[in-house]
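call fold target=TonB-linked outer membrane protein, SusC/RagA family
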Amino acid sequence: MKFYSVFICSVLIFSSVHGANHPGQNFTLNKKTLRAALSAVSISGVVKDNNGDVLPGVSIRLKGSNSVTQTNSNGAFKFSIPELKGTLVFSYTGFVTKEVPITTAIVYNVKLESSTNVLDDVVVVGYGTTARKDLTGSIGSANIKDMSKAPVGTFTEALAGRIAGVQVSSTDGQPGNELNIVVRGNNSVTQDNAPLYVIDGFPTELASANTINSEEIESIEVLKDASATAIYGARGANGVILVTTKKGKIGAPQITYDGWAGVNSIIKQQEVLSPYEFVKYQLEQNPDLYTDIYLKNGQTLEDYRNRKGINWQDLIFRDAYTHNHSLSLRGGTEKTKYAISGSLLNQQGIIINSGFRRYQGRVVVDQTINKNLKAGVNLNYAATKKFGTVVAESQTSPTASLMYSAWGYRPITGDIDFEDNLMEELYDPDLSPTADFRINPVKAAQNEYKPNFNNTLVINSYLDYQIVKNLSLRVTGGLTKTNIRQEIFNNSMSRLGNPNNNNKVNGSFNNTEITNLLNENTLTYSTKIKGGHALKILGGFTMQDVRNYSNGFSSILIPNESLGMVGLAEGQLTVAPVSDLKNGLLSYLGRVDYNYKSKYLVTVSFRSDGSSRFPMENRWAYFPSGAFAWRFTDEPFMKGLDFLDDGKLRIGYGHTGNNRVSDYASLTALKMLAMSGYSTGNIPGKGIVPVNLGNTKLKWETTVQSNVGIDLSFFKKRIALTADYYHKKTHDLLLNATLAPSMGFLSAFKNVGKVSNSGVELTVNTDNIRGNKFSWNSSFNIAFNRNKVLALNDDEPSLLSRVTWGNFNTAFPYIAVPGKPIAQFYGMQFDGVYQYSDFDVQPNGSYVLKSNIPNNGNPRANILPGDIKFKDLTQDGQIDDRDLGVIGDPNPVHIGGFSNNFRYGNFDLNVFLQWSYGNDILNANRIEFEGGDPTTRNFLNMFASFANRWTPENQTNELYRVGGQGPAYYSSRTIEDGSFLRLKTVSLGYNLPSSVMKSLKMKSLRFSVSAQNLITWTKYSGLDPEVSTRHSALTPGFDWSPYPRPRSITVGLNANF
């Protein structure tokens, strides 16, 4: 102590003398300064976790001051403080913050508890926070530390499989695509089932994960049961995702860089027929036509065995480079805390001329104005661009997609010298465009211009005022401004702008501006009553206003394509749509939390919502909820169970709603005719006609949910288990109800349906090994959900759903039946292939189907050996619509994830597995590329599997002959098991030791190597089992021409200064 005092005095005296010799520098050594210097105290210590392992990088702050230090690689720290008085605050990511009073001691050895293993960490809930141990509702928390190790562009990509009951899926693997998130099953049949996002306390139904930098996320909580979501009323039925971003912290400025770069590559290609098998197939299809093309000049079929041909998939797929960079500055004082950050993401797509880019910046300031008043502002801006050919777009013709050409474009010509021409030509010169216009896939990908630009500005602010002791007012205001611009330009070398297209060079422009204004005002009263009672009362009202304005125009026959989008004005204007939609929401809310010694916990909430989307008589809806929790381990009769650390039973019940109908849905829409509809005085006039029939009795879809859960902790918190059972019932579903013909319309929206969801969720977190050098912990979750239709329109027996797709536009691949899931696959039962034994041979050598053998929907005289065969379910000898039935179920039996974290010294390894089990997929790609329609698909290549088709020499029962596909029925032949187990993320990291950091004058430096989608185990024959290219509640699990999901290998760097 004497040494430090003398040293400080010497420094102060030297500084004063040195300053005296330099003009403008004054330093006065008064008695007060000298006394403070002499009284300074140095304290030290070591910080460890529950396992006894040291914790490097722990922040230690003297409460009420700006003095901050940090532990070194050995967990040790030294801290100079003015006097032995006050409180030390120890904080570390993933651990519970701990406050330690300063006594007369100068050594402070502290143990921190992991927030993943204890119940004392704080959890964000609707309009507030609470200790995890005091939760009464079902809330799932994402492990942000694990998620950050996944090299992905958005947090929703990393969320899949992380939280029980949260199903994350995508249409395909295209960069920048928004993901579909469903919490505890689909509640609605025709409306949006996406959860409500609440970002830093501001709810929005329009949130885009693409606008948020994953590195800026502090926590993600998912509110799942009604007792937790009812506080959000009309928007809480589908669950609520609470995203809290990082804020400034008290202490010296801290600069953090986090970045990764790597390569994305295709996991598998779809194998197609070789040149030999392709020519063999063509000769079977049309011997007269293709003999002249492929067997000219003395060539034989055998000559094609060694022809390499063109692999179009090799030409459109590429190794795509991706990189992500984030830079942040955080710091603050007791009064002012700040955070400034920026990020850049550039993802090349694995298909040429496709990708996604994002530029994002963020500023957060929190200011303590005085002891009763605090204010803050949070500003986030993101600019994104998604570009490239849309692979799985909803087209009525299968030939409109890129993968159709990539798989189907013929690999050879009849003359090897002309194969280079096949690569250079826009379309196959031997193919008539009137039959099947098939464009060169490379030219299509290179020339189609379809960027989608999104610019989003979010400004949120708050004001907290402590009115009196225990009573506070919080006023928040938010503005979200989104501008979406979509440009399309089809030049003369593109699929839709080539010379054979009637519109020639054409293009379109569409601009959408969405303005979302929000104001929320809440009063909170909290008090503790003698005897262990605690009470918190929340009340308030909110107002939200949304405007969606869009305009655009389309132009055809553009004369000068070199001008690009600028030249649209020179073409012929076709349409110029304009829309202006508005909606408002006014809400009143309240919640009461009662806590008795964390042993008995009660939560009661109520919300009333009024939405402009509904007619006056049904504009308001009311959403009550209640929950009770009992910590039974605090009861005297549980004291003998030493292995059980904590146990809590939760029961919840509540009402939530879904207001996601379109604006003005209750009104009849009118449309002006494009052509003159009447004449007055020989002057033509355009009439106005109704487009749909409004319904002035529309009301909310309402979900009633009950939940029973239990939280357990065993063996000194080495095992933590959470289990929930839930049942929810949604009534007043909005369905397109059939109307009487006299109404003039076939259908209109009515509140007529009912569905239910029931399920079980289980989450288990374990500390498997706790050691100084080596540790291993795991997290496992699994969820079962059973979805059921309870009622349809006017007790209709079923609801059929159609997918617009090729020759199958009139077929219905999905059915909803009361007592069964919302969507099941619907079609014919595949019964193999007609064999010679099914026919009588006529004297002229022709084959006639035996009278006791059912047909396949085609006239009996047209059926030949090798044609497809369906089961005659009605046993009437005829195949028709009465033989249609359920052929598969796209709903999984269970989904889940399993994460493991290993640490050895300065190395760490994360291995994460995700799965889905029991769901089927309709592989529509096989319908087209295992036989297709040869009458209109000349030169179309097939999947390699079609080489095993039925022929007189190969009388298989699995695949029909060339031309034997039969009528346009979906069948069980292309229904496949979509179950999969995916090695989703593997990340290996190394943290440089503190001795190196000290020499580099850095706080920490971590290097990592990560892989995403490394291995997938599945029986599915398509590119990827995680696909749904026509995704909706009624049409899940449909696979047609998807953008392949890539495998990613990246290297990363995290540096703190």
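return ok
Confidence is low (pLDDT under 50) at residues 1-38. The radius of gyration is 33 Å.
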